[in-house]
Structures are given as C-alpha cells and as structure tokens.
Specification:
The chain is an alpha/beta fold and 554 residues long. The protein has helices at 22-35, 59-71, 112-120, 140-157, 179-185, 197-205, 216-229, 241-250, 278-287, 289-312, 324-330, 342-352, 367-380, 385-397, 414-427, 466-478, 509-532, 536-545, and strands at 47-49, 53-54, 76-81, 84-90, 98-102, 166-170, 189-194, 211-213, 233-238, 257-258, 316-317, 356-362, 405-410, 435-439, 447-448, 482-487, 497-505. Strands 3, 4, 5, 12, 13, 14, 15, 16 and 17 form a nine-stranded mixed sheet that branches. It binds nicotinamide-adenine-dinucleotide. The site of nicotinamide-adenine-dinucleotide has 27 residues, from strand 7 and helix 8. It comes from Caldalkalibacillus horti.
Length: 554
C-alpha cells in the first residue's frame, strides 16, 4: 500500500482475537476505533480530531503498527515514534505492550514552523492528545468535560444545580456546540449566540440545542420565562456576540453566568467581526486578511469589555480556553484578565482530588456491555448525584460512535475501585469481552500547559514540564498497557507537554495487578503535583489517602 492511498478503516468488534493477547488486540482495535468514520473527522487522511491530530503517520505506518501488534508476544513492547512503529523489544508481562511519543521537539525548535518542516520531510506527526495515543471516543468527551465544568460552577455558586439561572455564551462550533446540552443537563437556561445559522441548525438536529431564533426579542422572552419557571432550556440565537452582549446589558437581562467559545484563538478563521455577514467575512478573509484580523480583534476587545461589564454587575464570568482575554489585552483592554480561565476557576479543585476525565470502551462492540458498566458505577458510588445525573442523561442523549464507550470524572481511590470492579465483571463473564480503560491528557497530573491546565498555579510552576514526563515514566513502571508522551496538544506547538495511559481489563490476575497500580499512580500524580504547588486540598487528599510525599515527612 502506497502512502498516498486513501483508505477507510472500520473498528473490529467481537470475541475473535487476531493478536496474541487482549492487550495487543485492544491497542489494535483502539487504533482502528480512532480512525473509524463514525469517530474520526477525516479518516481517509488518518486525522482523528483537533485540526490535524492523527492516529498514525501514514498508511504504510498504520499497516506496520497493525502487523507489529499481531506479531507481538505478551512479554514484548512495541515502540511508536510519532505514528511510526520503530522497534520491538522483549521486556516482561507487567510492562506496557506499546510505548508512544508524539510531536516532541527539542525546546528551541518547538514551534509550528519547525514542526511543519519536519512533518513535510515525513519525520513526525501531530498527535494532539488522544488521537496519537489511541483513546479518543468522539464527542461524548467534550460534552462530559463541558458538563463537568458547569457542574463544578453550580457546586461552587448555586448549590449543585443551575436551576433558575441564565447562562449567556457564544460559539456553537465543534466543541462549543456541547455548551447548550451541558447547561440543560445541569438544569439551567442558556442563550447561545452564534453567527452562522447552519451551526445552530446542526445542534438542533442532534438534540444538543432545543430552540432557535434570529429575533433577539424572542430569545430574551424565552430565556427570561424559562429562568422564572426554573425550566431547563437551550436557545440558539443567530447573531454576533460583540453586538448582542452590549444589547443584553442595555436591556438589563438578568444574566447569571457568562462565557464564550468562539474560536478567538484564530482571529482570521475563528471570529467574525461585528457588522459582518458571513459572505462579507469570507470575502475579506481572502482579499484583505490583515484588515479582517484587525477588525476581528477590535470586536473581540468589545466582546471582552461587555463580559467585564457583566462581571462588574455581579455575573459569574469565565474564559473557556479560547485565548480571547489575551487578544483583548493586546488591543488595549488592560483588565482583560480580571475574569479567570475555567481551570483555575472550576477545574483545579477537582485536579487537587486526583479527578479527571476517566473513560472506558467495550471491545465487544456491544452497547449492552456499557450499560452493565453504567449500572456498576451507580452501584459503586450511590451518593454521587452529579455522576448519576450524567450517566442517566448520557444513556438517553449520547449516541455511541465506533466502540461503545463511557466517560465520567472520577478521583483518586474511585478510579481504582471502578477499574477493579470492571475487571471482576469480565472475569465472571458478565461482560462479553474485555474493557479498555484510559483518560484524556487534559487530566490532573499529566499535563503542563501554562495557558490552560496549569494557568496561574499557586507557586508559579505553570511552565514546569517535569510533571508530565514523570507521569509517563511512572505509569510505565506501574505497567499500563500503553503509555504516551506528547507535545503541543490542545493549545499548539510550544505551549504544552502531556502524557496518556491506557490499561486493559481482561479479567486476568495480571490485569488486576496492572489496574491496581496504574489507576493509583496516575491520579496520585495529580495529588502530588498540586500538593507540591501548595494547594491545601491536595495536601489534605494526600494525608487522607496515605499518598507519600517525602518532604512532608521531614
Ligand atoms: P469552531 O471554530 O468549530 O466554532 C467557533 C464558532 O464560533 C463558529 O461556529 C463561528 O461561526 C462562531 N463565531 C465566530 N465569531 C462569532 C461571533 N463574533 N459571534 C458569534 N459567533 C461567532 O471551534 P470549536 O471547536 O467549537 O472551539 C471553540 C473555541 O473554544 C476554540 O478556541 C477552542 O480552542 C476553545 N475550546 C477550548 C476548550 C478547553 O479549553 N477545554 C474546549 C473546547 C474548545
């Protein structure tokens, strides 16, 4: 097969093994799952998600990986360098079956320009976070992350529910499109401003958004009525955020929460300036990009000023990781950073407890296996209301893509409990086939990303990359089934280092030992990283769970 050939891969399901063990088979199926057309954005180009995030460097390398996994013995380890299989060594059964490194560049070279040059020479690939580490599960991931953020906000400010509150946001694109459903899952009302009506229609079609209008009067009427009656409702309003927000302020609409997910990180392609139709925007992008970007940035400044004004008026305002504050600041809005990013505002306390986006997929391909695990998790954590609400809603509203899967946020102690219980169900034959257990790289102890996950760390350690490396090394020592170390995921080249792990629950004793170790070391890294940075909650968690921190024992 030549590199230029384009192919479509469908994930293999069922009980028949093509590899010499379930760990190898799981790695092969999860690679295929990442590229399944139900899951991947551009499968024929091996692109899974997030711009150019790929699962293998090219189709020859894909074939090489699949072949190597089929030959791999259960005491061997395959090495994958940015999507290319480069070696197999005898290690031992408890060691990982695969170790991967993606897009890692020496710091002085760590920018897009150098990356693109090296990629053009066929020497590397962009692995994003879960694309090159074979644990992407489709849109359920972003929906759950957004749900969890709004739940954390509800817990902090509104007694655990958004009932009777009105959230105003903008941008209903690939990721931002999860916002309306995430808010209504938390029982709130949301008014989402989106310039492109087709984007709203798509969200209505997939049931992520309830209603749509291009009339501001109608949108306000619906929103205020629903807020008053404490009914969950999501409204997509066709319009420009930079124009609508000041109008909402002028009309004194009772807004409780404000955020934004326009693609402000990219002033040319991601943000439409005020007063522009979509046609005019696309014309000017092509003909006069410099003027376009200038206008987009000015509108973003106005947008942020309105957000600041709403904050001054008592609303809860946060940045959702799109860099809009930085653009506004560069445009002269001196106090743009007066409202916080979502990690320091809501997620960091969860990270301090070792919590993060834990996920699992059923290798049988049978949705029933996931429903069995849904019942299991509710049984194991009977008092966790937010978790129960999420599982019920996910069953009702999330369509499986590729291998059936589930995601939820679990912390230190909880992950290992769930992992071992799943392994027991596999052993007893209550699940049809083994389960793959992993997580996003946006997790408590696995990422260094100063503009996002490690923004504003208490001790100033935002840019310290050691933690992400230690995480990968520790999970390797603990015996994960595959471990990966990446650069540049989420926020781009030069801005992040992060690592991933996956463990396979195949019902064996070996799997039980691996799960017991890895599902302890991995969230444990979150606790020690945040304890080291001076977070009291993480110190308390370490104390409570007996996580050893040598400097505390002097
Ligand atoms: P996208 O490009 O698919 O969607 C952006 C949407 O904003 C588009 O639908 C566009 O029409 C709309 N838009 C642009 N200008 C507008 C304006 N002035 N008024 C109203 N609507 C406007 O992007 P996406 O994948 O949805 O991601 C959105 C942003 O959120 C990105 O910057 C992304 O990096 C960020 N993000 C961050 C996190 C995180 O930190 N965890 C998660 C998801 C997304």
């Amino acid at each position: 097969m030549k590199q230029t050939d384009k192919r479509i891969v469908h994930v293999k399901k069922g009980l028949e093994l093509e590899c010499k063990g379930w760990e190898q088979e799981a790695a092969m199926r999860m690679l295929m799952n990442n590229l399944d057309p139900e899951v991947a954005e551009k499968p024929e180009e091996l692109v899974v998600y997030g711009g150019i995030g790929k699962a293998a460097r090219n189709w020859d390398c894909y074939d090489g990986i699949v072949h190597a996994l089929k030959e791999l013995e259960k005491d061997e380890t395959l090495l994958v360098q940015s999507g290319k299989p480069v070696g197999v060594f005898r290690t031992h059964e408890r060691a990982p079956r695969v170790i991967l490194a993606n897009s890692v560049l020496v710091p002085k070279w760590a920018d897009w320009e150098n990356f693109q040059k090296l990629e053009a020479q066929g020497l590397t690939m962009y692995g994003q976070m879960t694309a090159g580490s074979w644990i992407y599960i489709g849109t359920q991931g972003i929906l759950q992350g957004t749900y969890e953020t709004f739940l954390a906000l509800a817990n902090k400010h509104f007694d655990g529910s958004l009932k009777g509150t009105l959230t105003v946001t903008a941008g209903l694109g690939g990721m931002g499109g999860a916002q309306p459903l995430a808010v209504t899952m938390n029982e709130g009302v949301v008014l989402a401003i989106e310039i492109d009506p087709e984007r709203i229609e798509k969200r209505i079609h997939t049931k992520y958004c309830d209603k749509m209008t291009d009339s501001l009067d109608e949108a306000i009427e619906w929103a205020v009525e629903a807020k008053k009656n404490k009914v969950a409702l999501s409204i997509g309003l066709v319009g420009n955020a930079a124009e609508i927000l000041p109008e909402l302020i002028a009309r004194k609409v009772p807004i409780d929460i404000v955020t934004d997910q326009t693609s402000a990180h990219d002033p040319l392609n991601g943000y439409v300036p005020e007063g522009f139709s979509l046609e005019r925007a696309s014309e000017m992008r092509a003909n006069d990009p410099q003027t376009y970007m200038q206008k987009a940035k000015q509108s973003m400044a106005k947008h942020v000023e309105a957000m600041l004004q709403l904050q001054a008026g008592g609303a809860i305002v946060f940045d959702y990781g799109n860099n809009i504050r930085q653009v506004a600041k560069d445009e002269g809005v001196e106090n743009a950073f007066d409202f916080p990013g979502f990690v320091p505002a809501y997620i960091r306390p969860l990270f301090c407890e070792g919590k993060g986006p834990f996920r699992w997929a059923a290798l049988s391909g049978d949705p029933e296996d996931i429903y069995v695990t849904d019942a299991l998790i509710k049984e194991l954590f009977p008092d966790n209301e937010g978790l129960h609400r999420w599982i019920d809603m996910a069953q009702e509203r999330v369509a499986f893509q590729g291998l059936p899967s589930r995601i939820c946020w679990l912390g230190y102690g909880e992950r290992v409990k769930m992992g071992l219980a799943i392994n027991d169900l596999v052993r007893k034959g209550k699940l049809k086939a083994p389960i793959v257990i992993g997580r996003d790289h946006l997790d408590c102890g696995s990422v260094a990303s100063p503009n996002r996950e490690t923004e504003g760390m208490k001790d100033g350690s935002d840019a310290i990359g050691d933690w992400a490396v230690l995480n990968a090394l520790l999970n390797t020592a603990a015996g994960a089934s595959w471990v990966s170390f990446h650069h540049g995921g989420g926020v781009g080249m030069g801005y992040s280092l992060h690592s991933g792990m996956v463990v396979v629950a195949d019902g064996s004793d070996n799997a039980a030992q691996k799960l017991a170790s890895v599902l302890t070391t991995d969230p444990g890294m979150g606790i020690i990283r945040h304890a080291d940075a001076g977070y009291e909650l993480a110190q308390e968690m370490a104390e409570k769970h007996g996580v050893v921190i040598p400097m505390n024992r002097l």
